[in-house]
Amino acid sequence: MTSLLQGPAAPFGQPVERIKVKVRSHGMGSLQAVDRWLTHALAIEVGAQQADCVIKSGEDLRRAAIELLVTRVLLLSRVLLQAAGVPFFDKGRIFDIEPVHNETSTWWVTLGLARIDHLPAKAYQITLTETIRIVHWLSRTPLTPETREKLYSGITERVLRPLKNQVTGGKSTIHILRAAHQLNIPFYHLGAGVYQLGWGSKARRIDRSTTDSDSAIGMKLTRNKRWAAAVLRMAGLPAPIHGVASSPKAAVEVAHTLGWPLVVKPVDGERGEGVTVGVLADEQIPTAFERAQNASHTRTVLIERQVEGVCHRLFVAKGKLLYAVKRLPKSVHGDGKKTVSELIHEANQMEATMPPWMRSEPFALDALANQAISQAGFSPESVPKLNQRVPLRNIESTEWGGFDEDVTFELHPDNLNVALRAAAQFRLEVAGVDIISSDIKVPWHRNGAIINEVNFAPLLGGGVISRRLIPAFVRDLISGDGRIPIEIVLGGAEAISRAFDRQRKFADSNLRSFITSHEVTVDPQGNQVFFPFQGLYERTRALLLYEQVDALILAVQTDEILRRGLPVDRVDRLEVLSSGAHGSVPHIPSATAMKIQSLLTKDFGAVWQGV
């Protein structure tokens, strides 16, 4: 007899790791107090978090209270892991709550958490241990400005800093993976912050915003502003005019050749660090030169002719524009009542009420700010008009922050054309092309605009406009949801024979399907594929990394799946091969077979379709 099990995606969007923790209810205060903290200090939406169990006795009451406490722990853990750059997006699950023997206020709780490859177990230990402690503290502590700052400092020191030492990845990575998760696209961490989105032949790989189609040669060239500009000029594209200087004296000589005003910047810096704009005289060069040299890995400085205008970032991907923004420096906006100093103080106070991971760069009132304020025609004591902008820096940068103005639909086609041509010159599928222009609506060849830089791994998700368009970026990168068909045949020796029948069905649809059990793997031509390990989990995961795999058929012949699970979050089809009067599965005891079916039903969201 053959039974078929088919169903939708699992409740989890990522493979599940079961973790057992000890939770004490002794000394626990009010859950309502916890919820106030989560909502008003940590921007966590609590919702209706209630126990599922029916309360019939004192022990049931205590178990329900622990369940409610742990739901808060899971909510906070998810937020803190993401704040540290860990792509942990599922809410988590409580599998079991059992009292510790002879301890009425202590419980063992078995949790289901999203499994992230190469994430040390220590990361979960740090998070869960500290989060349980934090939730207890929140339940007994009034929310005041002082206690809120104490909480933020504690989280930073005891959770975020230790976690960040365990995690590798860039700023764009977490935003892209969040969008992938929302689009039901599976992902794996391959190491060093590199992730695979999707399975088999539908997979793509990313590192921050870069993809597996970006050229390593292009990366090398774009990371040196001197050589990048040379490539742009050779290709007939508008590029900066500059000279290289190894000393302040040489910088002055270059300056006299180019004329004023000038930009002084490192040849290989990032994030806008070490850049000084508006240099107008010899005496300004030594300070600007030192700043640039300190920010350069090679201690090499460019002296560049300054072009009139503002930097515009054109984010291009797969030969198309994703968005374009005008990059304006960190600023405050007037209300017609407060001075510039008061506006800066108010802005910093507002930031202080937000969790550290949600804050922007500080609103500084330092020498650079005073210079920018003065050049804009203000002083710290000025009272700007309503909505009047007062810049605190001369340029926008990742180091100092800023804000973006959407110009996607104002961009002149000729300006877009040179941006796309520039990305293609460096063989980059994804690039951030920075055009300095006085008016992006005017073609570059009419107003003297230039391509200031072509950025490898441009920041994606740094602003509201960017974050809004990440799902479109991911949808364009991945075919559908990036998933390939995965089927399971549960049985003994005959499971392989049945798997070959299914393989022929896939072949009829021109899909290259691979078969694997815990010890044998077969390609679409019937040839054995050899691996240096045994085990269904390892072999399945290996095949998900092969770009030749259009479909997978897993022959489950042991109870390994109960111990290891699978490196996927769902299967499309389960076929159970049974025989004998009691429906036992050869080589797999009936009780074990039932446990496997139950596991797939609960953890993979599957439902019975018939017999």
Task: Provide an overview of this structure.
With 611 residues, this protein is α+β, with helices and mostly antiparallel strands. 36% of the residues lie in helices and 22% in strands. It is built from 19 helices and 25 strands. The strands form 6 sheets. It has a 7-stranded mixed β-sheet with strand order 22-21-23-20-24-1-25, sandwiched between helices. The chain has a 5-stranded antiparallel β-sheet with strand order 17-14-13-18-19. A hairpin with a 2-residue loop joins β7 (204-207) and β8. The longest helix has 26 residues, at 58-83. The radius of gyration is 29 Å and the shape is flat.
Poorly predicted regions are 5-12, 50-57, 580-585, 606-611
Strand content: 15-25%
Rounded to an integer in angstroms, the radius of gyration calculated over CA atoms is 29 Å
What's the helix count?
A: 19
Q: Please provide the count of β strands.
A: 25
Largest sheet: 7 strands, mixed
The pLDDT mean sits at 89
Q: How does the helix and strand content classify structurally?
A: alpha+beta
> How is the largest sheet built, in terms of strand order?
22-21-23-20-24-1-25
Per the principal axes of the C-alpha atoms, what is the gross shape? flat
Q: End-to-end span in angstroms? A: 8 Å
Helix content: 25-40%
